[in-house]
């Protein structure tokens, strides 16, 4: 059970603050809701029914600083997950974004980053859908990392590179 003032991640919406837990009446039936306010965007407030397990599962607490550092150290060992068929790739990448599993997000970013590098070497660009998947995965992961580590998002990539290079 989450509490008011908890900072959480809500799937693709990213970092949110639970501003209240309220009851709303609809057709004589009262339902309790978590009220989530996205912290880093002007997106609208999100109402998640407390008794809807499927939607509540999409809310999770932010990682600890130790967990973030462990994930950063694990980045070089993450496998890439390129899928040749574009329809299958879109379906799988949407699932990864929806699930917000950290290791899968790292794999997704790594895969698309390396593929983008290959394409650039031959004078081509990443397909728009793949670029959007990469940007969304980076947003989800990097917002949380920057918040947890109490740094500016612009400082995150140099920090990740420094941690990875120190481990080599």
Element layout with pairings:
Elements: E1 7-10, E2 14-26, E3 29-38, E4 46-49, H1 53-56, E5 59-61, H2 65-74, H3 86-99, H4 102-121, H5 128-149, H6 153-167
Antiparallel strand pairs: 1-2, 1-5, 2-3, 3-4
Helix pairs in contact: 3-5, 4-5
Key phrases:
Thrombin, subunit H, 5 strands, 168 residues, 51% helix, Methane Monooxygenase Hydroxylase, Chain G, domain 1, 5-stranded antiparallel sheet
What strand line-up does the widest sheet have? 4-3-2-1-5
| Shape estimate | globular
- In the CATH hierarchy, the architecture of the largest domain is Up-down Bundle
Q: Helix content range of the residues, please?
A: 40-55%
CATH class of the largest domain: Mainly Alpha
| Overall strand count | 5
Roughly how many Å is the radius of gyration? 18 Å
């Amino acid at each position: 059970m989450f509490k008011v003032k908890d900072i959480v991640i809500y799937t693709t919406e990213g970092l949110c603050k639970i501003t209240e837990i309220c009851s709303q009446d609809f057709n004589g039936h009262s339902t309790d809701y978590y009220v989530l306010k996205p912290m880093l965007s002007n997106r609208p407030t999100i109402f998640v029914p407390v008794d809807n397990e499927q939607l509540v599962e999409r809310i999770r607490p932010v990682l600890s600083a130790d967990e973030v550092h462990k994930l950063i150290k694990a980045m070089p060992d993450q496998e890439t997950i390129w899928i040749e068929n574009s329809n299958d790739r879109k379906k799988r990448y949407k699932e990864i974004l929806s699930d917000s599993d950290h290791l899968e997000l790292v794999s997704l970013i790594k895969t698309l980053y390396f593929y983008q590098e290959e394409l650039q070497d031959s004078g081509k660009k990443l397909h728009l859908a793949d670029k959007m998947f990469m940007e969304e995965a980076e947003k989800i992961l990097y917002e949380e990392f920057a918040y947890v580590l109490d740094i500016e998002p612009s400082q995150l990539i140099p920090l990740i590179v420094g941690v990875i290079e120190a481990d080599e």
